[in-house]
């Protein structure tokens, strides 16, 4: 499943925000681990991590509504609030009462909202370069958000060039061409182009402001993994977030940017295994 040509999500779920594509890997009776991607990515960022974890765990991967292979449509609510609700619905659909959760970027905010606002219990929570603390959003991200209708009208070639460079900037080591193109592909057709700017336009900091003061009340094992060379969210946020969560532990991943799951999959997998197998 790690080949760029064979990463497929074969299962579907009708959520309140549209059809979600998802997949389960590993032994059915094993402890569950759910992986959440960020923006503007998809479950493909877990292409190395998911199969490795599946040797020991039952691993669930999914594309959020408006992302990857999941439904993209005009007027779709793809906000952090909507994604938190959808994640709650999915866990009920999967009948997972207390899974371990690993969340990257925007997925971090989604997992935190589901836990803190919707009362979803986790066994453990690993946050990988998460969107969690104000202020957030790169200058490019904010510029696009303020002028999304203009960017939606870009000629397709210019749009693809913009998306390609933006995604590549999340990596410190540099993405292989086939990997970069797989991350770009969901945004490459007409529906994808509109969806790309829609999700940025709906990215409102108020959705993390609503939960940020609740972090000191988190009562479960939490680890924060962070690319030491992250240029999208500075590493000082890693220390700030870890300090806000009681008992939180921090793992800095050297020679990795914001796209830690692709920049340093072996190192991240090792850190996640240590966390997932540690005594409670």
Residue ranges: pLDDT <50 for 5 or more in a row?
Answer: none
Radius of gyration from CA coordinates? 17 Å
Helical stretch tally: 12
Could you give the order of strands across the largest sheet?
Answer: 1-2-4-3-5-6-7-8
The average pLDDT score comes to: 95
Distance between the termini: 31 Å
Biggest sheet: strands, sense, closure?
8 strands, mixed
Shape type: globular
Structural class given helices, strands, pairing? Answer: alpha/beta
Beta-strand percent range: 15-25%
Q: SSE order, as H and E?
A: EEEHEHEHEHHHHHHEHEHH
- Helix share, percent: 25-40%
- What is the β-strand count? 8
Short structural summary:
By secondary structure, the protein is an alpha/beta fold.
What would you note in describing this structure?
The protein has 280 residues and is α/β, with parallel strands linked by helices. It has 12 helices and 8 strands. Strands 1-2-4-3-5-6-7-8 form an 8-stranded mixed beta sheet, sandwiched between helices. It is globular. It starts with 10 loop residues before the first strand and ends with a helix. GO terms for molecular function: hydrolase activity.
């Amino acid at each position: 499943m790690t080949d760029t040509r064979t990463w497929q999500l074969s299962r579907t779920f009708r959520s309140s925000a549209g059809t979600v594509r998802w997949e389960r890997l590993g032994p059915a009776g094993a402890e569950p681990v759910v992986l959440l991607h960020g923006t503007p990515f998809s479950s493909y960022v877990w292409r190395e991590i998911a199969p490795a974890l599946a040797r020991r765990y039952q691993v669930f991967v999914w594309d959020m509504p408006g992302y990857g292979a999941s439904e993209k449509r005009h007027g779709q609510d793809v906000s952090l609030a909507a994604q938190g609700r959808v994640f709650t619905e999915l866990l009920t659909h999967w009948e997972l009462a207390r899974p371990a959760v690993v969340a990257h970027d925007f997925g971090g905010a989604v997992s935190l909202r589901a836990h803190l606002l919707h009362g979803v219990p986790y066994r453990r929570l690993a946050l990988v370069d998460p969107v969690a603390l104000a202020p957030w959003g790169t200058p490019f991200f904010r510029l696009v958000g303020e002028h999304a209708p203009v960017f939606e009208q870009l000629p397709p070639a210019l749009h693809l060039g913009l998306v390609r460079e933006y995604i590549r900037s999340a990596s410190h080591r540099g993405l292989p061409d086939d990997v970069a193109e797989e991350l770009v592909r969901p945004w490459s057709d007409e529906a994808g182009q509109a969806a790309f700017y829609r999700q940025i336009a709906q990215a409102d900091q108020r959705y993390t402001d609503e939960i940020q003061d609740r972090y000191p009340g988190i009562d479960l094992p939490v680890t924060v993994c962070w690319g030491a060379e992250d240029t999208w969210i500075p590493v000082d946020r890693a220390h700030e977030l870890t300090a806000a969560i009681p008992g939180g532990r921090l793992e800095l991943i050297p020679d990795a940017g914001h796209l830690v799951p692709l920049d340093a999959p072996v190192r991240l997998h090792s850190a996640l295994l240590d966390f997932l197998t540690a005594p409670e």
